[in-house]
Amino acid sequence: MPPIDPLQLLRALATLLTSEGGIKGPAESTRICGLMKEASKLVSRCIYINILKATESQEALEKFIEDGGWDILNLWLSDFKEIDNPQLLTEILKVYKDLPVTVDLLKKNSAAKTIKQLGKSEHEGIKILSTEIVDKWMKKVRERKLAEGTDIDKSKKKKSSKDSKEEKKDKEKSKSDSKSRTDDSKNKSDASKSKSEKSDKVKIENEDSDVVKGRVIETPGNGLKIHIKLERSDNEKKDSNDNKKRASTVKRLPGRFRSTGLEEELVLPKKKINNSEPSSKRPGSDQKPKDEEPPEKKSRLQISTSLAATAPTSTTISSPTNTSPTDLQNSLKTIPPGKGKGHEIHESSIFMDMITRGSTERQPGPMRRKKKLPSVNGNSTTTPVKSTPTPTTPTTPTTPPSPATVTARSLPSVPSFYKDTLEENNDETEKSSEKEKSPSPTEEIEKKEISQDVEMIEPSEDGGESNNSEEKTEDNISEDPNEPKGLLTNGTTNKKNKKRKNVTWIEEAKLRTYHYFALDETERVNVNRVDFDQMKKQEMMMDRKAVESAKRLTHDKMAEQIPWRRPPVIEGLPAGIDNGANSVEKDIQRERELVVLQALFFNKDMLPDSPAEPDLEPFEPSDPKFIPLEDESSGEDNNVYNHEQYHSHDMTKSLPPPSQQQTTNPATLPPELINMITSLQQGHQPDLMANIQNVLASVMGSMGNQSQEMYDKVRELLLPLQNQGLIPDMMNMPMGPGMGPRPRLGLLGQAPPGFIPGPGMQGAPPPGMQGPPPNMQGPPRFPPPGPVVQGEEWNENMMGGPMAGRGRGGMPMRGGGGRMPMPGPPNQGPPMGPMQGGPMQGPPPQMRGGGNQRGGRMRGPTNRDICRHFAAGGCRRGNTCSFLHPGVNGPPV
Amino acid sequence: MKLTDNVVRNFRVAKVFRENTERINNLDFSANGETLISSSDDDSIVIYDCQNGTPKKTLNSKKYGVDLICYTHAVNTALHSSTKVDDTIRYLSLHDNKYIRYFPGHTKKVVALSMSPINDSFLSGSLDKTLRLWDLRSQNCQGLMHLSGRPVAAFDPEGLIFAAGINSECVKLYDLRSFDRGPFATFKLAQDKDCDWTGMKFSPDGKMILISTNGQVVRLIDAFQGTPLQTFMGFQNTKGISLEASFSPDSQFAFVGSTDGKINCWNTDTGVRVAVFNCDHPGPVQCVQFNPKLMMLATACTNMAFWLPYIDD
To answer: Which of A578, A676, B22, B250 counts the highest number of beta carbons within 10 A?
Structure first.
């Protein structure tokens, strides 16, 4: 063609233009658009660009875009980029800047991506311009997204990516200006090392891929690619629609929705962009991005395959599914697969299986594709539906996917309960969490317990992330291919294909969320297998409790009579001792509580049945000190206060008074006595009564009966004695065991000896007294009575006294033994009758003796025992001694 | 407000708690009177807030059962005897619901438990006819006394001496520092034939000892001479159960429950029965205690009742 004269051209166009050189109006813009389509020379293109720049009428521009100007400009843009003409790029970017853009437009072709990429360019003007444009468009996209919510726009992604890019660019700027793309990619890779930057890189890559796409379109083989792109968009839309329509069968956390909606718009978009881009680079992922990638990175072989596959794909377009794209890719890539490694395939297969399963179960579409694709391609790799692994292999022949990536793949599909929190921009955290859960998805599927939720997620974030993290090493390689130049040349693409062993995630949009509920055996038992018997028991128990409490409460009329108020402090209390002042343990526990967590129970169900067991602590067992019952160091009776008689007062009303102390040890008694004692002990009151009534008319009976009447009678009987002044307290002695003896003693007429005080008693002539030890209690005294044990009667008589006083064997014996002995025998023969009269008078002295002995302890005149030490010859306490010193601090005996 | 006959007569139930399904077998006020801990036959421990008149905390001890609970000096610890498994005494931290230490040794049911008012010693008496002296810091028994019957024991309010009731007829006083040398005083009392001593308490002023029984009598004796001062009778104890008797903080009054749900109050000086409260306790009132610092009385059968004086100062 002859060189074009710009002036000529302008003149020719003059009719269409305003005086400023802009397009006159919508009608003219159509024509201009038509003309532009023909413009292939730089000169004419420049003129048209200038015209557009000069156009101020929005209508005209809109019309221009409508009529295909958008695509034309895109074409030019990519061309300009290819020839790397900064001036031209600047100019065209200025045009872009002023164009009234809509989100749909942005979606229409790769212009946005290209411009984004330009943001990285080393030319300062271009960079600024492109970033400005990107920002402007991002705004629009955001607005739209906010309005639509779920719409996934690449432009959005571009926005985020642009932002990230800017950062990167800055970094790059700081670096040397070496403008080889490899350098850029390196920079990117460096940036990618930092987690936050990873996503950015991905985005960049995506943009690159977009650019590539644009170019691809231009190249002859690109028709195929274009088709693929269309499929993608269609698929995406359909998927999203599907997702929307499908009601979620699984309970979702409320936060989940939010995150998918608003948060995703903000956060996910970036990821998605990343994903889609990376996915395009890595054919392993099943989605459209991958489709796009093949053209870029893959050799024409792939393209040709894709061409071959186009027919099927176009058919599939109608029913786009997650799996189908992968299959396509697989088919496309199948040719290279021969080089692929089996291992990787296997690993990825798990993930793919899951995806395909999920998709197959729910979406018939994917199935079709799979089937069709294999048939179309006739590839050896493409096999029945579950050949998903194969696709990955072909796509990732060069770079073996790390196990982590594999798991990561599985992750996205896995439902993560914590995703809500994790999703916040932290790709890495997501990955990790997903990795942990990766095994579960398979289980779920198998058990069919899983309910799946299709989440409307924009292009695979996960894929992008995974790519970033895992492909750090590969970044240089993989990114290079992305760049347009490499893509265009077949040779380079081949090399790249070989190198690529990329594992990519499914597009975000096609990811599904599975909620996996781990099977808890115990829970199962509790919830589902209700044991009937157990239930029955439980119910019975509950009923019983209810009844019991009802019973309790029916009798429980207790009511609060006054309202509660803070109890006043009691005044006038003596200042008490400091409670726990010497406690060491108190402090130990206080310190312990500082470091031990308090146990809190918010309701009674939380209460453990029992407190926790104590910590084991080493200890050396040691024997406790023996606590003696008697004070062995000082005199035995030194500090003994005897108050038995006081009780007798009380007892008069209801009980017979206790008689004596127990000092005698029955074991030391002669056998006869022991027998007697035991018989006494065994005697029961009823028996006593019978005997007494039989034998003694009143006295003895009264003692047994303890009735007041009897008591009075006894008193009468005793009166004479008391009159004698010998037994001052006799009256007070109700019916102690002493009662018995007295009469008997009296009978015996042994009064004189009886006069002798306690100790004296021993020497007492009376028969029983012979050997008596000072205290009278010892066995020696008893021997005499021994013989006495003549008949049961005697025993019974005896019992009247002693028994009444005490139930104890030892005590009565003493009492009885002391004095009874002698009287005993005589008594028995004769009935009581005589006893009554006579005994009383005669024996008074004796009585006293008895009184002292026993009574000495229990009721003696002073209510005190005779001081042992005094009796022995001298008490060092003298008058202060609390024991009786007969004749000194008490009445003489 | 001071405790007078009139005040005592005007005590009324101000709170009724039905936290337990079984008899409350023991209760103990904290030294500052702010909380009350109770143990029940339903194996639960309930702690009440005496200021606000509310239950404060509940703990279970279903494994070992709980009886004879009493606070130790640390704010959040208590000592209790067991009703199940064995007759070990257990030292419980209420703070983290964990046992701190066990005190094994008794082979039959523990029927007396008394914490020293000033240091870490405590006394326990059991139906195995032994009385043991312990230290909270060691699970080793510190002192052991063999008796011939059911023991009762109590520390005096100054924590210098402890009293042991022996065979329901004899009180022996021991110096805590030299208990191994035997009692420094012995009070011989007439033996109660038809009942056993089931409890013993020093009056807060240390001058009297109140001896409760499982019969229809409660005895008050002089803490220095053992002289019987008063005998409180006339309340009902038809079941032969042990009814707690306790002093008011000023030692002026003695309170005893009864099996017919009434509360009796005597003046310790005069022996005059000051009041009989009919408060509709549905069961035998086995636990009666007066708050050591506040004008508040706690009585318990299955229900727990808090009493307040119904008059202003």
So the answer is: A676
